[in-house]
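An example makes the point: we print one protein in full, the chain in one-letter code, the fold tokenised, without further comment:
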Amino acid sequence: MTKYKINENTDKDMAKRLLEERLKLESNRKEFVKIHNISYSNLDNWESGRRDFPVYLLNQLDELGADIYYIVTGKRQLTSNSDQSQLLEAKDEIIAGLKRENELLRKQLEGTSENSELVKIAEKLDALLNERGSDQAIDEEVG
């Protein structure tokens, strides 16, 4: 049976990404072969691109949190809950920072008649930030 390859470099690239994801999981070779019940030579062959790695290995890596889409395609995809949680936390921190900056700006502008329009804008921004869907409201307002 003949094995057909579209591009030999594709296999090498996938092998490099497999190694990269293993290292990202902070799994050394000894731990990795033990966890997956594989031999050192198989791991070496897979990570060097000398042999194709089995699908079951991708399934196991997926369960450990590796980016399987990246290993296969070379493109990162935010699919894990931890990635999405980190993004949401960062977004919340940004919104909190905007609220603090807005409050400081409003306090600086209060009492000056020439800045009354800016005060109104700051108050409107404050109201948008306090709405339940603050991020959506800001997106709609900003355009």
